[in-house]
Design brief:
The chain has 11 helices and 14 strands. By secondary structure, the protein is of the alpha/beta class. It has 2 domains: 145 residues, Aspartate Aminotransferase, domain 1, CATH 3.90.1150; 225 residues, Aspartate Aminotransferase, domain 2 (3-Layer(aba) Sandwich). The strands form 3 sheets. An 8-stranded mixed beta sheet has the order 2-9-8-7-6-3-4-5, with helices on both faces. Strands 10-11-14-13 form a 4-stranded antiparallel beta sheet, covered by helices on one side. A two-stranded parallel sheet has the order 1-12. Helix 5 packs parallel to helix 6 and helix 9 packs parallel to helix 11. The longest helix has 27 residues. Bound molecules: pyridoxal-5'-phosphate. The site of pyridoxal-5'-phosphate (PLP) has 13 residues, from helix 3.
Amino acid sequence: MFSERIDRLTSSLVRDILSATQQPGMISFAGGLPAPDELPVPDWSSIPASAAQYGPSEGEPALREAIAEHARGVGIECVASQVLVVSGSQQGIDLVSKLFIDPGTPMITEAPTYLAALQSFELFGAVCHGVPLGPEGIDAGRLREVARETDARLAYVIPTFQNPSGTCYSAETRSAVARAADELGLTLFEDDPYRELVYDDVDRTPICARLTKTSWVYQSSFSKSFMPGIRVGYLIASPDLMPHLVRLKQATDLHTNRFGQWLAHGHLTSPGLAERLTHLRSAYSAKRDAMDVALGEHFGELAEWSTPPGGLFFWLRLRTPIDTRALLPAMLERGVAFMPGEVFFPTTAPESGYMRLNFSHASPEQMDRGLAILVRAVQETAG
Ligand SMILES: Cc1ncc(COP(=O)(O)O)c(C=O)c1O
């Protein structure tokens, strides 16, 4: 009755966790949600009446211009005709999946990588080959080997404050990955939703800004630094890919909702943008520091982690690896939600003993209480 791809839809576990986080009183380390008190009040007055009509599939021209200008500012040489506004960057993942993936298509991801990207790639039938992430990113030599061994033509990377690991690729790794992609003719799909949530001084130049030959898609989002509820993100692609992506967008939802696009335009062109981002960074870096201290108190003996220089997550490696999925039911019953690390690894490169913990949502008091409960469960299971 259904398409054969439906059998490849995975992870009801994540839906269970996310619905549990809606319960009152739940301490959530699970999602990547902005803190509720950091969400701005929408300025509806900035929306023209014409937004009530159908609009262009590529997006509002004024927003595309503003995005292209912003992207040139971060090093991506582009013009507005290379910008496609999408309904959240999750839709960018869907469109790129549709463009490149047939059942059995080999592709490369980081290991670990963003769960919902893995789900989309695998839904379309990709065989995802993981390249392990180190403290400075993926090893370009290993990337070359895996691309040659598997004949992969597409690589998906999140070099800046990676989800789930928080890793930020070094400048050397960014250049080495760009060189490898150019030499191999590997299409690079770079996902960059966290770049504005920067707390320490690190290189954030997109890898796509360093490419000279190969095709590429760079994408980012208004979800993490503005409002996830508007569902507005964007992708910028090399000119050879654009016509296909626009047609796929058209076939998917005609265009992204115009009210959200105008709110995003107001945000991106606001004279107060720099000040707002400075405030956001300082609020989130204080939360990151509080979480770091709380983790030290509760998990110092049991786990190791690096303090993330940006983004929204800590990535804990347990010294005694256990399958952290086994902890979940009891944790949810005790009112604490977290993301088990196993689900972020492609099936070709499974690993155990990691947990992803968000730090933007819980208050310092909840962090302390929630981590005390979590550490007890880990101790009980590890024996
Ligand atoms: C790496 C990555 N890509 C894409 C998304 C999707 O973001 P959105 O669709 O809200 O723009 C997320 C959300 O958490 C993410 O972490």
